[in-house]
Amino acid sequence: MSAFSEAALEKKLSELSNSQQSVQTLSLWLIHHRKHSRPIVTVWERELRKAKPNRKLTFLYLANDVIQNSKRKGPEFTKDFAPVIVEAFKHVSSETDESCKKHLGRVLSIWEERSVYENDVLEQLKQALYGDKKPRKRTYEQIKVDENENCSSLGSPSEPPQTLDLVRALQDLENAASGDAAVHQRIASLPVEVQEVSLLDKITDKESGERLSKMVEDACMLLADYNGRLAAEIDDRKQLTRMLADFLRCQKEALAEKEHKLEVNHSTWPLTGNISSGFCTLRGRDEQNSMKLNQAQEKMMQSRDAVNMRCIRLLLCFTVLLFYSKLFISRVQSKRLKV
């Protein structure tokens, strides 16, 4: 992991994207250098004000990740962000649109629920974001939805994904982080010195200490990058799970609609047959039209059977995919906790 400098931080902030992997990777780097928390916060605020409006929200996502995940190791970032976070909220709120303000409100609600800051700071943040308007308290269901959502918006239930979108999403996961054998080998091959604290007693001089420090920093960077990739993969798999659920729902609705139409058509056949027979008897063509009616009924029944079989296959296929996708997410999350 590279040494800290303000120039290095400015470069990393300029390369920061709104993906969860990018935010988490930089957050881990900042937490590793938490002894420089004051200059980090100073540079963060300066670069926030220089950033384009569409990137400002990402800076606050980064601050949120650093503040919450650094609490286990020390209060440095929570304390150093406190004097600037209110003005940062005001600045981002004034520079962005209503959609961005909703995301800021979501961050603020999480901080309030988890008591990240004292009540006086939270009240100042509310005032900065809402002014004199009082935000409505979120319900439990809204909180659970927010925790499961990604920053990017997903397709609405009324617009199910196309088959090509599902195929493309499945193909993208073929090269996912969890299947990266090369990284698995690199992690497995990490020297024992970076895993056993007891070996620190064997350091006898400055040179060996610096060598061990370099190995530890490289190992931390490797694990931080892989952790970020796994987090992004989990988000991708969650989104795929939602896409499969929407697609499955759409197929069920289509099947129900087709069955309803077939039932309506089937209920009209006897009446049509009787009327046709009456006219055909008058015209001497009863036998010919009766044959045509039987043929039409047979075709309709074949069509109905074909639709039913196709929908049943799709339901089975996507139910299996949905199950394995959820199973894989739980395994990857367990693996991340072990790492």
Automatic annotation (TrEMBL):
A Pfam family hit: CREPT
Source species, domain of life: Eukaryota
GO biological process: mRNA 3'-end processing; RNA polymerase II promoter clearance
GO-annotated cellular components: nucleoplasm; transcription preinitiation complex
Principal location class: nucleus
Subunit structure: May form a heterodimer with RPRD1B. Associates with the RNA polymerase II subunit POLR2A (via CTD phosphorylated at 'Ser-2' and 'Ser-7' of the heptad repeats).
Protein name: Regulation of nuclear pre-mRNA domain-containing protein
Originating organism: Equus asinus
Lineage of producing organism: Eukaryota, Metazoa, Chordata, Craniata, Vertebrata
